[in-house]
């Protein structure tokens, strides 16, 4: 079992940046891959980025070059650095864990444990 807590969301203007944090508890950090998902109002939850336990990554095409997922093993924390934010990036951002061999596909159905989410709002 693992618990996840997101933080770092807020309101920014278009072109701005935010860094989200996903703090984990338990001993699962090195056993799971961790992904960031987002859900805009009226839309389904989509996979934004995933980082594996050994540092491999996967990004949605819509955020490549703008978002960077990373982790701090000592703090058992995963980060999502979001640059050049646009209004379409607005939504609730969640982190979640998976052990799926298909982690690279960033499918929400493959992720088992979820955090409570942190809101990101980007204004034009």
Write structural notes for this entry:
The chain is mostly beta strands and 124 residues long. The protein is 0% helix and 49% strand. The strands form two sheets. Strands 2, 4, 5, 6, 9, 10 and 11 form a seven-stranded mixed sheet that branches. The chain has a four-stranded antiparallel sheet with strand order 1-3-8-7, with no helix packed on it. β4 (33-39) and β5 (46-51) form a beta hairpin.
Topology:
Blueprint lengths: L2 E5 L2 E4 L4 E8 L7 E7 L6 E6 L5 E3 L7 E6 L4 E6 L8 E8 L14 E2 L3 E6 L1
Parallel strand pairs: 2-11
Antiparallel strand pairs: 1-3, 3-8, 4-5, 4-9, 5-6, 7-8, 9-10, 9-11
Keywords:
11 strands, 7-stranded mixed sheet, mainly beta, 0% helix, 4-stranded antiparallel sheet
Choose one word for the global shape.
Answer: globular
Tally of separate helices: 0
Q: How much helix is in the residues?
A: under 10%
Q: What's the total number of strands?
A: 11
Offer a concise description of the structure:
By secondary structure, the protein is mostly beta strands.
